Amino acid sequence: MVAVAAAGWSAPARADQFTPAQRAEIVSIVRNALKTDPTILGDAITALRADAARKEDAANADALRDNPAALSPQPGDIVRGDGDARTTLVEFYDPRCPYCRKVLPDLDALLAGRRDLKLVEKIIPILGPDSTVDARAIQAAIRQNKGLEMQQALMTDHGKGLDHVREAAAKLGLDWTRLQSDMGSAAVKQELERNIALAHAINLTGTPTFIAGRQVLPGAASLAELRALVDQATPPTAR
């Protein structure tokens, strides 16, 4: 910190009481300090970033506290693992999101190694019409007990649109007429709208986003990062 009183005059009570000459002298002192010790600026930036991160974490915790549905299974969510597990990992994802697709193998590996964990997957189609088609197909397939299978089929190839969905449905042995009807239903639309509203309410900025306890982890997290997030949220007696 630069001590302005050392310049030979008493600092005014308020910043707006500085004279132009005093302001110029302060600027000169700060510039010289930065030239002499550039780490001052780095330290200031680090402190600002840390403060912003603390505020963001606090805001996320408040938002999650006020929106408990973000941390629990809701109609239309895919739940993987032990439904009675004490630790829950929530993922908000878009089926067309390349980063969501990238983490699929890591999620499989995470669940394979943690029998005390359940994964709740909340779908939010935010990347355009093709995302909406795929999301509705997954929600509709849940009604035929093939939601996870449809999700995996649609997210592991490069097709898009109804032909893409029809092909996946045929491979999975789904009733195509029923699937189309459910895709256009008010119930499916409401489930997706609920998830999008929930994502806004808890200040999500993109997909995928993972939540465990009150901790939020955005982006294509690595398996190690996912394990660390889950470990932090797991009660010691449940590990």
Please explain how this structure is put together.
This is DsbA family protein. Residues 50-235 form the Thioredoxin domain. The chain has helices at residues 20-36, 39-66, 98-102, 104-113, 129-142, 147-155, 161-172, 176-183, 186-201, 223-233, and strands at residues 78-81, 87-93, 117-123, 209-212, 215-218. The protein is an alpha+beta fold and 239 residues long. The protein has 2 domains: 12-66, no CATH class; 68-238, Glutaredoxin (3-Layer(aba) Sandwich), CATH 3.40.30.10. The chain has a 5-stranded mixed sheet, with helices on both faces. Helix 5 (129-142) crosses helix 9. The longest helix is centred in the first third of the chain and has 28 residues, at 39-66. It is elongated, with a radius of gyration of 25 Å. The two termini are 46 Å apart.
